[in-house]
């Protein structure tokens, strides 16, 4: 039987720069966490809040590639659309993307995910998003983003457990 | 005879956020300035300092596309390589890109160019770059970037004059 350690998701809004840093540990090796971020068949199983019904409409995961997805919730086939670019895919340690919600296309964030190996086949994930202004950063924080992140990472815990076994 | 108004390039490092804002006016209509940023045959004629010998190695200018170029100066066939993604190409008003110098791939900037129409068929160009930390921003500022920007925009003035006539 696998012992699963539940971890806190830490969401930090820096005081001096318009960034959001999300830190979380996972009971799975880095290669597997990286694959869960980059393989679209895995991504749709965990990204976003529990209520989401994510559908990938474009996925070209390579340095210089791009992605798009829609969240089609019950009764609303296209609740929200998102798109962005893969600036760099550096397997298995680093993923740099842009991110936009199609409803506010002037708000673009640059997101850098770093995966660090921990002892015991575990992984620390650090995701830093930066935007141009504190106003945009605060809009993102007040959009309910944290629910999506926390619930998504809980789904990712489950998925990683399944993929390991 | 066309009267050409020389304009100052304003480079501003914000106090409160790690951005660089570059503002410049051009004696050419917005469509033409936008084309000079997006058509690779025009880009190579003006981007970068006067000493540069820019060679585009990849150019896919569309939302979700990407680009790469090298600056091959005299005696040094690959002085520096740069690459990035086109997050959004919104003709003729807005261009959002990522930007990395291959020599320091962990330093990524998100760059938003906005072109505003001015009376008399002129254009104001506002380019905002944001990075994650003030340290990265200050490294960029001390890299001689301003020379490249100012000289590049002078070459762009000449190119726009040629393309208009």
TrEMBL record, chains A, B:
CDD domains from the UniProt entry: SRPBCC_CalC_Aha1-like_9 (cd07826)
Domain (Activator of Hsp90 ATPase homologue 1/2-like C-terminal): residue spans on this chain: 27-161
Name of a matching Pfam family: AHSA1
Family named by the database record: Belongs to the AHA1 family.
Name of the protein described by the UniProt record: SRPBCC family protein
């Amino acid at each position: 039987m696998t012992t699963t350690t539940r971890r806190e998701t830490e969401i930090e809004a820096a005081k001096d720069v318009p960034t959001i840093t999300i830190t979380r540990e996972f009971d799975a090796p880095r290669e597997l966490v990286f694959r869960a971020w980059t393989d679209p068949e895995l991504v749709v199983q965990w990204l976003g809040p529990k209520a989401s019904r994510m559908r990938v409409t474009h996925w070209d995961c390579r340095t210089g590639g791009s992605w798009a997805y829609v969240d089609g919730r019950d009764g609303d086939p296209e609740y929200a659309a998102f798109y962005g670019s893969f600036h760099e895919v550096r397997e298995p340690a680093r993923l740099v993307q842009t991110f936009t919600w199609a409803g506010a296309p002037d708000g673009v964030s640059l997101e850098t995910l770093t995966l660090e190996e921990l002892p015991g086949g575990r992984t620390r994930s650090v995701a830093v998003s930066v935007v141009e202004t504190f106003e945009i950063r605060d809009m993102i924080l007040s959009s309910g983003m944290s629910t999506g992140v926390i619930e998504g990472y809980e789904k990712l815990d489950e998925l990683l457990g399944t993929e390991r076994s």
